[in-house]
């Protein structure tokens, strides 16, 4: 039993915990043992505290022994991307700048998970300050894809997706600024959900681009993603962008809601650059929905061609502003060679930030600078409005959109050394962040080489229940999510 626990879903493990077939301590020990067995090859974690996890698990078992009703996440190990605060735990953003920083408080999502009885398990690797699409831009070194250790797991939340795929955690949280949950979920063969902007509090998340960032779950199944979303969603007065929305029972709604649905296929997402095997797998998924009686309609998102440019102006501008706080004075890395206050600032930032972070800070500072603000940043914000309107216009005709998640399957570590080539990996995901919409990636097949492929479903604002129900309809008819890598 223990050898198989780490590949079970939250729902399956919940049944075992309810019947006392297994304890949280036994489950957590199985996850720890699995992590120790494969982590040397996968390298999904920046750090983990075995004793703390076991103590949390024992406390969960004690609560249930005392008669406390068990919620769906009670006693379940959940990993967190290393940009989400956990009091008393390292918070590094995979950067030398924060190499020795320990969080003094919990993020709101961490507080919610703890309140739900989850076992907070480890700090998961990512691209530095969540900037990247391959988890190669980490000061701790790259994470490997469990399906092929010579390939990337995607990014920036690659540690979260790889840990889940490898059985090193039962579920995980990541952050998504331009595809950083959905793209790694697709490349590692798991479910990844980016909620509507404002549905999940960003309090305690290290900021990259504040108008784009959103925390969301990685899970083995759509039902598990619904359970996770139900635990972390909701208004938070500590986040000024948090939205006051009614939070349904996503798990129940996912099972209750049935099709057929009206589904749109954006013609701009099926052109040059799309890998033939990815295209074929997504087309088969579209055919499945058509066979279920769904109305499939081609739609147009005419401003898609401007998404990449718009995103890399807005995201870098906000990154430049947000990362100004890392100055070597108040906290974070401080240069030992500095001679005065100005020297501390320049040398600490030069030593603490990696190449990709520096590239984005420089670009963002440029587009915000005097004489260029109107030409770049202001214009990008206007185009962003047009991009969002494209989606809203499409939703007058359809309930959701079906697209590939990533244009390519997992590529080799070190293969894409050109920054632009990496930026293009997010071509199908960044529009969702610019528009503030919910979207998820669900496994929809494998390449002939055995690499996972993801199908992206893009929903209407705050329509996560519908989106999850659509994805579950596909998942229930296929077994992609039941296949695991051999490590």
CATH class reads: Alpha Beta
Strand % is: 5-15%
- What is the gyration radius calculated from CA atoms? 21 Å
Q: Do you know the CATH topology?
A: Amidase signature (AS) enzymes
Q: Helix segment count?
A: 17
- The number of domains is 1
User: Average pLDDT across residues?
Assistant: 96
How far do the termini sit from each other? 18 Å
- Which term fits the overall shape? globular
Low-confidence stretches: none
Could you give the count of β-strands? 11
User: Which superfamily, in CATH terms, is the homologous superfamily?
Assistant: Amidase signature (AS) domain
Strand order of the largest sheet: 1-3-2-4-6-5-10-11-9-7-8
Quickly give the CATH architecture.
Answer: Alpha-Beta Complex
**SSE series:** HHHEHEHEHEHEEHHEHEHHHHEHHEEH
Please outline the major beta sheet. Answer: 11 strands, mixed
Structural class: alpha/beta
Task: Report the helical percentage.
Answer: 25-40%
SSE inventory with pairings:
Blueprint: H1 2-5, H2 10-18, H3 24-42, E1 45-47, H4 50-65, E2 77-81, H5 108-115, E3 119-124, H6 158-166, E4 171-175, H7 182-188, E5 191-194, E6 215-219, H8 222-232, H9 250-256, E7 262-266, H10 276-291, E8 295-299, H11 307-322, H12 341-352, H13 355-368, H14 374-394, E9 400-404, H15 419-423, H16 430-435, E10 439-446, E11 452-458, H17 464-476
Parallel strand pairs: 2-3, 2-4, 7-8, 7-9
Antiparallel strand pairs: 1-3, 4-6, 5-6, 5-10, 9-11, 10-11
């Amino acid at each position: 039993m223990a050898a198989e626990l780490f590949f079970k879903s939250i729902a399956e493990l919940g049944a075992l915990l309810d019947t006392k077939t297994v304890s949280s301590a036994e489950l957590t020990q199985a996850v720890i043992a699995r992590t120790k067995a494969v982590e040397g090859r996968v390298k999904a974690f920046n750090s983990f505290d075995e004793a703390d996890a076991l103590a949390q698990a024992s406390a969960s078992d004690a609560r249930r022994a005392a008669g406390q009703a068990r919620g769906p996440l009670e006693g379940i190990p959940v990993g967190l991307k290393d940009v989400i605060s956990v009091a008393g735990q390292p918070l590094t953003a995979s950067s030398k700048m924060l190499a020795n920083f320990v969080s003094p408080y919990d993020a709101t999502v961490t507080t919610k998970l703890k309140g739900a009885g989850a076992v907070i398990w480890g700090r998961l690797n990512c691209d530095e300050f969540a900037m990247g699409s391959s988890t190669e831009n980490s000061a701790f070194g790259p994470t490997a894809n469990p399906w092929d250790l010579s390939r990337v797991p995607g990014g920036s939340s690659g540690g979260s997706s790889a840990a889940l795929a490898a059985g090193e955690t039962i579920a995980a949280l990541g952050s998504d600024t331009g595809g950083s949950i959905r793209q790694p979920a697709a490349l590692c063969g798991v479910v990844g959900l980016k909620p509507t902007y404002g549905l999940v509090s960003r309090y305690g998340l290290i900021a990259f681009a504040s108008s784009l960032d959103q925390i969301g779950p990685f899970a083995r199944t759509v039902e598990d993603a619904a359970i996770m979303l139900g635990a972390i969603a909701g208004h938070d007065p500590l986040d000024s962008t948090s939205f006051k929305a009614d939070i349904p029972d996503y798990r129940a709604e996912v099972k209750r809601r049935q099709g057929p649905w009206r589904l749109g296929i954006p013609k701009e997402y099926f052109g040059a650059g799309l890998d033939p095997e990815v295209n074929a797998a997504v087309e088969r998924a579209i055919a499945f929905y058509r066979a279920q009686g769904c109305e499939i309609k081609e739609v147009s998102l005419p401003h898609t061609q401007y998404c990449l440019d718009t995103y890399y102006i807005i995201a870098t501008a906000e990154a430049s502003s947000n990362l100004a706080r890392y100055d070597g004075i108040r906290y974070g890395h401080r240069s030992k060679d500095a001679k005065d206050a100005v020297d501390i600032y320049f040398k600490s930032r030069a030593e603490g930030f990696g190449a990709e972070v520096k590239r984005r800070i420089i670009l963002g500072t440029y587009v915000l600078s005097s004489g260029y603000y109107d030409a770049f940043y202001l214009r990008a914000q206007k185009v962003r409005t047009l991009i969002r309107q494209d989606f809203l216009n499409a939703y007058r005709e359809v309930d959701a959109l079906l697209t590939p998640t990533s244009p390519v399957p997992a590529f080799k570590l070190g293969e894409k050394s050109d920054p632009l080539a990496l930026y293009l990996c997010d071509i199908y995901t960044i529009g969702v962040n610019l528009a503030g919409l919910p979207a998820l990636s669900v496994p929809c097949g494998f390449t002939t080489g055995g690499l996972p492929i993801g199908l992206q479903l893009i929903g209407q604002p705050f329509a996560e229940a519908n989106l999850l129900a659509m994805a579950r309809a596909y998942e229930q008819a296929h077994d992609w999510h039941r296949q695991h890598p051999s490590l």
